[in-house]
Amino acid sequence: MFHNRLIALALVAVSCLAIVAAPALAQRGGAGGAAAPDPVEKAVQLKPDLYYVPGAGANAVIRVTPEGLILIDTKNPGAEIAAALVEQIKSISNLPVKYVLNTHHHPDHTGNNQTFVAQGATVVGLEKMKQLMTTDQRTKDIAGPPTVTFPKDYSLKFGGATVDAHFYGASHTGGDTVVYMPDKRFIMVSDTVPVANPTPGIGFGGNGGSAVQVPGLLDSMLKLDWDVAIAGRGGPMTRAEVQAFKGKWDTFMTRVKDAVGKGATKETLMSQVKQDDLGWNFNAGFFGNLFDELQANPRGEPRL
Ligand SMILES: [Zn+2]
Fold first, then answer.
1. CB 196 within 8 A of CB 12
2. 215 CA to middle of ligand 1, Å?
3. Ligand 1 center to residue 11 CA distance, Å?
């Protein structure tokens, strides 16, 4: 049972990587084949009034307030998935979902926004995330893009809860949004921190993602006061786990900058940077994009 679950997680991880890699890194190989069975799972409590629902795409996070619910991410598109997600939400509270936040535009995070819009919810999102969602071939026809948008930071105060959204830099996509609940000491890091994939999923090209901005993004996350994090996939993470992931990025970027300083070119960079000891397997396309990024944004400043 546990073994099967691991296999399913690994398949989901591969398909998520494929989502990122498809337009920019076509040589990685198609994501064809049968989809892994990935049903909506039972809601799991993280803290009082705070839950997450795994399965069927990305984790969805639910914050309960006396005036209604705040939902972060809405899973893969599909009526059955939407109904199963609603069922899990109802198992937590009969109050309506009043706000939906999306942590990036990919379909496994935005797929059922419209279900909650139809029930009276308002979708809130980063302007850049909305722009990507409404132009990306994979999401432009998904209903329910954000109607309340913000350029960089947003603080939703509702039912006594505070739910903050921040753009700290691009990584998995150009619209990556960190959701922080200071009163719960909780953070949703989405796919900027991969749990199931060993290699980070950096979506270059049409995804608008970035490698050079990742260390700064992780740094900003770690400056917030939280003790539980949830990523797009997998279970709760501790600060130590996110810190360890940042440590890997710091090591990796130091090696990359050293190699470039010693004259590595776009073509040779990959062969001059050790990554297997980090458990990573970035391909030639990734290193080419990274080389270009370093020329354009050597300090890795957050850019929308
Ligand atoms: Zn994604």
1. yes
2. 18
3. 14
* Dist. CA 15 → ligand 1 center (Å): 10
For the sheet with 186-190, list strands across it.
Answer: 153-158, 161-166, 178-181, 186-190, 228-231
pLDDT tens readout for residues 25-81: 322 223 334 556 899 999 999 999 999 999 999 999 999 999 999 999 999 999 999
Please give the domain boundaries of the chain with CATH numbers for all domains: 2-245 (3.60.15.10)
At which residue do the structure tokens 């799991």 appear?
44
Residue 263, CB half-sphere, CA atoms under 13 Å: how many? 0
- Please state whether beta strands 148-150 and 60-65 pair in parallel, antiparallel, or not at all (unpaired): unpaired
> Taking phi first (over 0 means left), then psi (-120 to 50 degrees means alpha), and beta for anything else, what does residue 103 get?
alpha
Closest CA to 184 of 156, 225, 239, 240: 225
Confidence band of 197 (pLDDT split at 50, 70, 90): confident
Q: What separation in Å is there between the alpha carbon of 3 and the centre of ligand 1?
A: 25
Report yes or no: 183 and 137 within 8 Å, Cβ to Cβ.
no
Distance 209 CA to ligand 1 centre (A): 10
CA separation for the pair 297, 213 (Å, rounded): 9
Query: Ligand 1 center to residue 246 CA distance, Å?
Result: 19
CA of 190 to the centre of ligand 1 (A): 8
CA distance 21 to 16: 9
Model pLDDT, residue 37: 80
Q: List the 68-72 sheet strands across, edge first.
A: 44-47, 50-53, 60-65, 68-72, 97-101, 122-126, 148-150
Ligand 1 midpoint to CA 57 (Å): 9
Find out whether 230 and 243 touch, Cβ atoms under 8 Å.
Answer: no
